[in-house]
Each structure stands twice: as structure tokens, then as C-alpha cells.
Amino acid sequence: MLTGKIALITGASRGIGRAIAMEFARAGAEVIINFHRSKEKAEELAKEIENQGGKAYLAPFDVANPKEIKEAVKALEEKVGTIHILVNNAGITKDSLLLKMKEEDWESVLRTNLFSAFYVTQAVLPMMLKNRWGRIINISSVVAFTGNPGQTNYCAAKAGLIGFTKALALEVAGRNITVNAIAPGYIETDMTEKLPEKIKEVFLQEIPLKRAGLPEEVAYLALFLASEQASYITGSVFHINGGLYRG
Questions:
Q1: CA geometry: angle at 231 spanning 17 and 31, to 5°?
Q2: CA 48 to centroid of chain Cα atoms
Q3: Are 26 and 1 in contact (CB under 8 A)?
Q4: Annotated catalytic, 154?
Q5: Residue in 154, 186, 220, 245 annotated catalytic
Q6: Could you tell me the pTM of the whole model?
């Protein structure tokens, strides 16, 4: 399905990013695994992909640092070739009520979760424009639509990705480049594992399907959006949340 394509996934060493990298590799894509601090997990993922007959490359750079990104993407183009697919997945949380939120926590979440999509996309996009083909997939969140107390920074960043997706889709459609967003709900990842048990119980009670989602379920959707089968879909947001939000 993705044979001959090269895909860059930010924050790919764990969680949803890891699952997407695995699915893309199984579909024949060469996968570039971006990570910042999780070197060991990134190396484990690359080894697993290669053991299954795929190709994986490590790309250690901070998605909140535009200089690092430009240098890394330039090096990747020289080493690997044209990047056809970009998944802006990297994200962090630094939760606090707004009145108590530190300015640096507001800024770091916006930089990692929103500004990074601008930085990385701007670095990769010239390759797609030249190639007249591309897939950009932005990982947003259900809280971009519902809000969540204690997460004004995270909600603002993930909501910003929606506007980013819709505007960019219009800018690049003429070059056969699609831009879409996925808004996962409560998915079993390292991030959600840190939540208190009481909060997890509340989430599960509110989800009509009465269970958390799996990273692989998000990855299946990302795989479809990266494929030729989704060539007529752009500027759209796909909700995957077990019925928690029905927008």
C-alpha cells in the first residue's frame, strides 16, 4: 500500500507514533523515527521494523527547535531521499489550572504540540511540492473540541492544529498534497497511563463503547489517510474516540 514511500513520524518512539510507524512499515514504507530523549525506545522500534523486513531510520531532533529541524531534514533528504508522508504526532502535557499555570508550561506545550507542526511541515513541504505528491497527517485530540479542565495549554495547541490543517490543505491541494487531522479520544498510551485511576474511570463511563482505544486503531486510520485510497480526502478531521465526541 505504501511501497516506495518514505514517511517521517514525529514522536515515534512510543504510543500512537510508534503504532503508526509499525503500520506504515508493514505497508511497505521506509520509516523515519523521530525522537528527542527516548533513544533506547526508538532503537528498539527500528530493530523491530528491520527484523520484520522493513527499513527504518533514526532522526533525533527536538521538534520545538526550528534550527535542529532544518538541519535534520536536510540531512535526511541527502541520506534517505524525498519524504512523501509526514505525521505530526509529537506531543507533551504539562497540566495545571490556568490560574496556577506557569508561563513556561504554557509555552513548552504550545511549542511541542503546535509550533512543531509548523516547523517540521515547513521543512518537509518543499520536497512534496517538487514531487507533486504528499500526505500530511496531524494528530490532534478530542479535547480540541470538548475542552478539558487543567489542560488549557494542551487544548489550545490541539485546537490550533485543526485550523492549521484546514488552511494548509487549501494551500497545497493543487500539488496533489492532502492534509488531514486525526482527533483521538482516550487511547491507551504512556500519557494516559499517568492519569489517576478515578479520572480513568470517569472517562470510561462517558465512552459509549466502554473501553479505551488502542494506538493500533489510530494507526489503521493514519495508514488509510496516507494511502492512494484517500487521495480525494483533504482538510478533514477524523474522530476516533469510541463515541465520546460525535462532532
A1: 30
A2: 20
A3: no
A4: yes
A5: 154
A6: 0.96
Query: Locate cell 511501497: which residue?
Result: 3
> How many of the other CB atoms lie within 10 Å of CB of 20?
30
Spatial separation of the C-alpha atoms in residues 193 and 189, rounded to whole Å? 6
| Whole-angstrom distance, CA of residue 206 vs CA of residue 54 | 39
Domains along the chain with CATH numbers:
6-240 (3.40.50.720)
pLDDT by position in tens, the chain (length 247) = 999 999 999 999 999 999 999 999 999 999 999 999 899 999 999 999 999 999 999 999 999 999 999 999 999 999 999 999 999 999 999 999 999 999 999 999 999 999 999 999 999 999 999 999 999 999 999 999 999 999 999 999 999 999 999 999 999 999 999 999 999 999 998 777 777 787 778 888 999 999 999 999 999 999 999 999 999 999 999 999 999 998 7
How many C-beta atoms lie closer than 10 Å to residue 32's C-beta? 27
Q: Are 189 and 212 in contact (CB under 8 A)?
A: no
Q: Which of 91, 166, 87 is nearest to 134 (CA)?
A: 87
β-pair type (6-9, 30-35): parallel
